[in-house]
Amino acid sequence: MNMVKPIQVNEKKVLGFANLYRTGRKAPVWEQALVTIWFFVTYLPLDGVTPIRYLMVAYFIGIAGMYYRDVLPVVLKAWPLFLLPILGLLSFMWSDYPSEAIRSGVLMLLTPLTIVVIGARLNTRQVLRCLMFAGIMTAIYAVPSISTFAIGGPYGSGAKNLLAIQMLFAMLLSLATALNQKEFLWIRLVAAPFVPICFVFQYMAHSATSLVFAVVGIVGLLTVRYLWMSIGRIRHLRTSILMASVTLALTAAVVVLNMPENTIEDDFLNMLGKDSTFSGRSAIWREAALVSQENPVWGVGLESFWQYDVGAAQTLNENDFKPFGTKLSFHSSFWEVRVHLGIVGLSLFLLIIGWCSYRTLWSWFRTPTMDTSALVITAVIILTSTFTESYLWSTFNTLVNLLYFGAVTTLGAGKRVFQGRVPVIIQEAS
């Protein structure tokens, strides 16, 4: 409630009118359960669940049709999320594999649609709750393969980074839930033990980068919970601290970059167990640059590079000691878009990143709760990982879900709706 122009009644009483807001609807438990199942089957690639995925996609399409009055306005407001998928779907016209390009384009288009439908039906806390339970279920499912975490565990050989990043978000969402005083007590009690469990699982995956993200995320959530939310009671203090922090960070960056014989970057990479080639990624990026120069505007089209009859792709497989025909990635979402959809696609991808970042930060500045803080911290981690991983180029995964939902949550069920003004009496304490 926000007070507007109080009226003095007497020395101790003030009559005022408060703006009454309703913050989102509450979806029924069964609907939250279905969303949790959807997040789980996209959290972990399970064998034999493809029919479930198709049924869930059909469910979301059906919900979009049944509740079009709620969903359509959110779709229109979230239009930046749909431009790149539309371009990807149209790329079948210049792709060397048109049928596969159509399939990938449809999946790209359905990815933001499912998030928009979920955001229109469930509020912020409910969606984060569903994502947390999906992460907990994934952690439990991964226990039998604990001895193989160093090579990928349930995600298969060579997927240890994917296992680590999934456990990272399961840990952060569990921590945010455990710290959220507005969440149900029993849910907080369920979430609390999975914070150390998921952290240990992530550590066992031997991904130093994810470990750094975990430390940053934990410090960020604890700072928000015990410092940022408390200082909000002092007028303009948050803004002053934020501006001072930005100024200090920029000053430190200028000083470091102007230091002679600066080896900080190499020292940091060595600490993470990496080198200046980012574990061989630079060779893949050089090949991506060459391919993109040949098709600068529109790219090669979806599904037109990582194919068995593309010589450049198979050369990368050979250099990386991968079997012939393996579909790798460029380990960078930016290069994935640049190669497949050209400069036009890259512009639309940057629009998505900018729009999602703006919407997520705007929601956090407006209502700095544990829910919005969790979305901001995860968004920072996701965008940072985008430079060395291709997760945002994928469809129906946890990182895409979190980034997109952070942008659309205040457009749908998480939106504050003005209900009217109600009279309130404020009495001075004796």
From TrEMBL:
GO terms for cellular component: membrane. Coiled coil: none annotated. Pfam families: Wzy_C (PF04932). Keywords: Membrane, Transmembrane, Transmembrane helix. It is found in: Membrane. It is a multi-pass membrane protein. InterPro entries: O-antigen_ligase-rel_domated (IPR007016), WaaL-like (IPR051533). Residues 197-350 form the O-antigen ligase-related domain. This is Putative O-antigen polymerase. It comes from Hyphomonas johnsonii MHS-2.
